[in-house]
User: Which sequence fits this backbone?
């Protein structure tokens, strides 16, 4: 719920209808009875947003000016001022707040932002560039300084948590990279082992083929010797040597040749 739109002004009203700085009028709602009576500022967030200030700060100003206790719950955006307070009274407090903490002391425009340095609150105007100190004797200054300190702590904590989270994510990413690297190394080792096994099998196969070839060549040489022995008929001693040479059992040779019969040999004397 938002009130009617009015010009942003201090204690002296601005009557210009084309004035571009606007804010909603305050809307209060009285709740409770007796000692528990209180006023809820319904549109505190809209009001604070138009003034570029925190809702808790604006609500605190009501308490400082009226001498009442105030509470603001950011979770449900509920601003409470103890006691019964009518809208005109609340609106007058808003104009006082704007005069002291929103308007630039030099140009009078609501274009200021706080600059806090060494426990002092300064107005810095975005319109004219002026830098003026606020009334440090006002009770609200204590609240502003305490809020600034709290915000700095929260920012530092958030930054620390963010750095910690980034470090944890980086550590986790590093661990994943190391795991992938180890797995890759392991796979590479397995590939090397498989390659060695394959190379060994190839070498064994080559050796087996070579051995088989040598055996075939040896058997062919023996057959050639047999043929030569049959042609040499004149020398009985030589023929005897051939007969003795070829009389052994060739069952140890390859291809299942068991025994060569001396069909082409002439009888030995």
Assistant:
């Amino acid at each position: 719920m938002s009130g009617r739109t009015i010009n942003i002004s201090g204690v002296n009203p601005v009557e210009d209808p084309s004035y571009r700085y606007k804010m909603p009028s305050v809307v209060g709602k009285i709740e409770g009875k007796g000692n528990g009576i209180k006023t809820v500022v319904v549109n505190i967030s809209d009001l604070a947003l138009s003034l570029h200030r925190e809702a808790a700060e604006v609500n605190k100003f009501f308490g400082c000016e009226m001498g009442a206790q105030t509470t603001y719950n950011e979770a449900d955006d509920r601003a409470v001022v103890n006691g019964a307070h009518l809208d005109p009274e609340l609106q007058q407090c808003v104009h006082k707040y704007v005069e002291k903490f929103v308007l630039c002391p030099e140009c009078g425009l609501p274009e200021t932002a706080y600059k806090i340095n060494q426990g002092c609150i300064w107005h810095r105007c975005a319109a004219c560039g002026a830098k003026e100190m606020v009334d440090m004797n006002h009770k609200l200054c204590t609240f502003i300084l305490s809020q600034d300190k709290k915000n700095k702590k929260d920012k530092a904590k958030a930054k620390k948590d963010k750095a910690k989270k980034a470090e944890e994510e980086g550590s986790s990413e590093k661990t994943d990279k190391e795991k992938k690297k180890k797995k890759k190394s392991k796979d590479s080792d397995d590939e090397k082992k498989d390659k060695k096994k394959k190379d060994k099998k190839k070498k064994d196969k080559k050796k087996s083929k070579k051995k088989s070839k040598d055996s075939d060549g040896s058997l062919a040489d023996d057959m050639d010797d047999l043929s030569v022995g049959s042609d040499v008929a004149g020398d009985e001693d030589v023929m005897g040597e051939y007969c003795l040479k070829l009389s052994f059992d060739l069952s140890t040779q390859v291809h299942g040749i068991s025994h060569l019969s001396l069909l082409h040999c002439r009888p030995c004397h």
